[in-house]
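Trying the structure run again after the queue cleared.
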Amino acid sequence: LNETSARHVNDVFSELAAKAAADVDGIANAVAKVGSLAYTSGIDLQTTSAMLTEMIESTQEAPETIGTSMRTILGRLTQIKTGVSDLSEEELQDLDFNRVDTALKSVGVSLKDTNGQIRDADDVLFDVAKKWENLDSNTQHYLATQMAGTQQQSRFIALMNGYNRTVELQSIAYNSAGKASENFSKVQDTLSYS
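Done. Tokens:
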């Protein structure tokens, strides 16, 4: 972490907090629970923060709980149930990596790319979210249970139901450069006016 990256993180968190029913500390706490796993799962800071902010906003649950929930979801997405190092390309294509892979296939979403590698988790989650409203209730609950587990399924459902809001927050996060300073100046102006 250097000054530039710290400023970037501050901008993302500050702008999301300014535009959502979440605060900077809450977003930071949620990201702290899942940040490294999100990164290794192919999700950047902006998208991770947007997903977590949407879940905090829609559930109004503790940010730590939301971060733990996302960690569970990503852990299930990236879990591989068998060794793959000795498999041929053809065997890799036919392999079901885990229960999540099987559940995703049932709705036409692939966990793997054309080379048999696990896709970035945000791409998989967004593909599911795009299909979500057209799935019947039983299929939604099946996917939620497989992707998040029984304890976390309501939070997964909140993420899927809030797809449009997540995309909006993602755009806000990507366009947040310099916003922390701008927001701080507004606060200073307000305080000096009083």
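The chain has eleven helices and no strands. Worth checking whether this holds up in the mutant runs.
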